[in-house]
Amino acid sequence: MANINDFKLLNIKCRTYFDLLEKSLNRSIKLRTATNKERFGFYLFMLESICNVKDVPDILDLITDTEFNTDVFDVKDDDSGVDAIFIDEENNYINLFNFKFRESFNVDKQQKLNETFLSTKFTNSIIGENTNGLKGKIKRLADEIIQKLNSNEIWKLRLYAVSNESKELDVNSAEIKQLKELFDLETVAIGLDTISKMMSIRPHPVDAIIHVEKDSILPYTESSLSSSKSYIIRVSATDLIRITCNDSQHRNNYKMEDLSVLSNTEMEYGLLFDNVRGLIARSKYNDNIFKTLKEEPAKFFMYNNGLTIIANDIVSEDTNANKKVKITIKDFQVVNGGQTLRTLHRFNQQDKDNITVYLSDCELLVRVFKTAAENRVRNKIAEYTNSQNAISSIDLKSLSSDQIQIEQFLEEHNIIYARKIGDTGISPSKNYTYKISMEKFGQILFSIQGHPEKASNQKKQIFEKYYNQIFGDQNFDISKSAEYVNRYFEIKKVYDALGDTESTDQKIFYILYIDRKLEASTSEKIKLLENALESYNPTDKPVTNPRKLLQAKFKEKLDNNIDEYLRAN
Length: 569
Prior knowledge:
The chain is of the alpha/beta class and 569 residues long. It has 27 helices and twelve strands. The protein has a six-stranded mixed beta sheet with strand order 5-9-8-10-7-6. Strands 1-2-3-4 form a four-stranded mixed beta sheet, sandwiched between helices. A two-stranded parallel ribbon has the order 11-12.
């Protein structure tokens, strides 16, 4: 159960996000109430964590909350009880968000839905296909949702009820059941207890001791001359829960006989800091693990891929007349199998008898690799052991050595390089200038290298087909990383200051491309791009600027305009 310290840590995290918001907008935000600093930061943190959208400008596009948009943008459109909307094109989910942020901690306080949302004005507008009562961003998004629901594709509606209260919303309540019946609306409740596990805090070293039969262990060395051993171990689920729980005494108590004490433990979430997967609120895979644990625990070993652990040191000692081995694992991380581990712990907490009735009959395979001071090897193990699973190429590349080097380089220039969800920098106390996601940085590089027309709609390919081309030594100089990030935000600042000209990432990517073509002020380059957009008409029918910017022929048109500009100047 989350406590007052989790509440305070969340507030610190939220203030950091609000600071990043002001820096992204390059201005101070005048708030009507002081607590809106934490509240608005809470919106940003939660939307990043749940939607996997890491850049502040992209998160701002999702927020419909009236109070937020009034304070930040002086736009007072009614939100109809919906605080944010995320249309997930990849999984065909329309995600609605209802936030509750409390100023003080109350252990007995339970989350409730916003009364305005319960009036169903927004959902009625969608189902009735009439958005005349809406305006601004909420109307635009509602119209887009209606279009999705009327398409031939299958789309699902999901409501995230998100709060910093200690007790989560009761999803079995009458009001939630009514929403399900009326709109086929799935509801996911996220409260402080769940959020505390989502917070990306650099973990303290975790050690544990395990004592296993000798025939349950297979030692491995890279060569006969190496003294460094790694191990493949057949481990009981009860032992795995013990060595990964948040009680250091339990982790070191390899002689434990009374397993029932483990039923009250929770997982040490710091062990997943180097794991590629973030929090998964609902997953069919988790349900399958639950089913196996309940119905066929003895077969779990055959059905599950097990875990991969990396450790700074592994110390083994033969015991019991060489029949057993005592293994001390020092400063370890679970880099693969985190979803299995989370589910094991959740199954354990579901019923106090599960640890003895079911988990005691369950075993799984654990690979433990010693990787002290070998960051390249650690990262390769994390990347390659995850590459066989259904994980995005972007998430996989977040573990690679070159991405970690970029993170470390930008850290020296006070820039957060967000490789993962919830990243707010390596140093919690540092005053950072900017935050840039790994995806956005890849788009910046691709544009600078001559492909602004591909940077927006081929983001996935940047971390697959084009990865070595973009981040390879021939085209990418890491020493210019900070210069590129600063230039991106400088262009955005100039664009936003113009007021009458819409600023988009697509346009900024083109200005970065123009940078390598000619010497001129940023305003002059913007003027050149806007003139090219206005004069380019590829068909008889009108084409929007975003579509023009994706076309290779538009880039050819722009190149011709640049040549004319150079000849004239």
